[in-house]
Amino acid sequence: MTFLGIPTASSTGHLRAPRTFPEAAHDALGNAQLRRNLGDATATIRAKRAGVVAELPDWEQLRAAGAAIKDETLAHLDEYLIQLEEQVTERGGVVHWARDADEANRTVVELVRAAGADEVVKVKSMATQEIALNEALADAGITALETDLAELIVQLGHDAPSHILVPAIHRNRSEIREIFLREMAGVDPALTDDPRALAEAARTYLRRKFLSAQVAISGANFAVAEAGTLCVFESEGNGRMCLTLPRTLITVMGIEKLVPTWRDLEVFLQTLPRSSTGERMNPYTSMWTGATEGQQFHLVLLDNGRTATLADPHGRSALRCIRCSACLNVCPVYERTGGHAYGSVYPGPIGAVLSPQLTGVEHNPTLPFASSLCGACFDACPVAIDIPSMLIHLRAQVVDAKREAHHTPTPEAAIMAAAAWTMNRPRWWARGLRAARLSRFVRRRRALPPPLSAWTASRDLPDPPRETLRDWWQREGGVQ
Amino acid sequence: MNEGAATSAREEILSRIRTALGDRPSPAPVARDYRVAGSVPADVEQFVDRLVDYRATVHRCGSDEPALRLKEILDARGVPRLVVPDGFPPAWLPAASLVTEPVSTETLDEVGAVLTTCALAVAETGTIVLDAGPGQGPRALTLVPDYHLCVVRADQVRAIVPDAVAELDPRAPLTWISGPSATSDIELRRVEGVHGPRTLDVLIVG
Ligand code: SF4
């Protein structure tokens, strides 16, 4: 039973791994095709991102401003949410609140039914994946059609997304062609595996749906509290189709996706596209306020474990995350295991933090260990989330939870305790990292620290960064 | 909807937030020491460069020539008929078969071409912003047709994103367009044109 006002972890949705990370990672590491696709893809995005970030003379200032704006949002989240609600309502929109995934799903199902629809078009959205909305709609007899090309590939392939931004990153062109030929009604049997032809096939398939759909469901990248404005960043135009054409629009948004002022968007309009697709600007960004151009608009504000994350002063900065996926692309662990191994809709470094935070560490006890703590994620993050420190913090929580559950330490708890003991002692940790860095000169084969070493023992790892963050910090005169 | 349940979810979430913030965090104020509005001069050449980089086709002309240039561009593309929204400057109208508002989605799909103005543009990112103002039409107008021809006056080009944000009204329906529709979902190979216009032509006037 929950008591009013107690921040509560999420009990439902796609946040929990059915298997431990080491088990799932072990399988993924055996899939050579997956590793090749991922390696190519992450290397390409990394290079593009580095290029467009280097173009901005004020990148670090924008990054600091992004972090500060999000911290301000979180520090007064209740006030900003009320402000947003007022603005959206004033402009003819209807605001709904959902404590957890089930409540959000029930709300959306009722809204779709009230609109008299049995089919909806969807824009790619992490929030709706998190709450398993498509499954809830299907249970209610409503067909949800994903319209983002990658999501469509995943949906038609009866598969799970493996990357925040490029959900079908684990599929290559010939696999995609096979999926389309098998699953896409009315597709040309002579379809080739040319990416252009595949995109054209998706265009033709979805166009009829866009022109006839009555209800669209989207997420939101940002909402502006002072104005009630919502934003969706996208590339293909499927977002615009969904946001514009159907008579009813339902947007499901995590309560943390706010910024206080309109001006604040000037920061994220620069940092999000560069961090995520490595573009100066994504092809389309749509912004709307309330009911627009004759549409009915519903906004569903979702908690689902976010208030529990907010309650932890050492963990709440994970709620700054703007879901750009830059941390995934630089992560040596993610690059090898892919997204599925994380068992949650949020993979990679941020997933290793956010999934256990949203569910409570007891439901995702191995994820905080799915990292080599190399610090690349922190450096890439456009809102400067210190992911390595938070992983260490969560590891300690896992150990505590285990200790409580088992009075006497299990072997696993003992290993974790040893790891956490090292991680929690900055000097030891720094020494360990420095040793890893030095070791690149003497060892050709590199391994991740335990317990990750169990499944990476035979795999090459990239060179650790020449200078650890901690070395840099000390060299720059920082204090511990 | 069950109003009672909705109210209680709202109260409960707000109350959870207040409990969670029991330590009264007071973050440092936001430092706006990045390049803000008005700090960089606008550069039309950079705008052209960035548009081309993102596969838009750029045309230029003097202030008294748009009607003629638009006609040439349309002829070269083989566009016989196009939609023109209310408020498009009459002096710029090309000699072509024009479809005027209101237009249904079906007509937009069938005509397949649209000519608009814009609210402003951003040089550094090669972005055109539409705010449904005169000559731009509702959002579907620049979305459903496969071909979009947009006229930008040189004096509408701003330097950087903060310049645009400072001038735009957040309550207008805004569409920020940077090149034609594109996807990189298949092996990260960029393919222009999925659902939005596959061809974007920009005429810069003046
Ligand atoms: S943690 Fe940072 S880098 Fe990772 S997805 Fe979130 S905002 Fe992007």
Automatic annotation (TrEMBL), chain A:
UniProtKB keywords: 4Fe-4S, Electron transport, Iron, Iron-sulfur, Metal-binding, Repeat, Transport
Oxidoreductase is among the record's keywords: no
Residue ranges annotated for the LUD domain, each copy included: 83-293
Top-level taxonomic group: Bacteria
Compositionally biased tracts (Basic and acidic residues): 460-474
Region (Disordered): 453-480
Residue ranges constituting the Lactate utilization protein B C-terminal domain according to the UniProt record: 407-477
4Fe-4S ferredoxin-type domain: residues covered: 318-385
Listed PANTHER family: LACTATE UTILIZATION PROTEIN B
Name used for this protein in its record: Lactate utilization protein
Source organism of the structure: Jatrophihabitans cynanchi
UniProtKB/TrEMBL annotation, chain B:
Signal peptide: none
InterPro entries (UniProt xref): FTHF_cligase-like_sf, LUD_dom, NagB/RpiA_transferase-like
Domain annotation LUD: ranges: 110-205
Source species, domain of life: Bacteria
Pfam family, one: LUD_dom
Protein name: LUD domain-containing protein
Native source species: Jatrophihabitans cynanchi
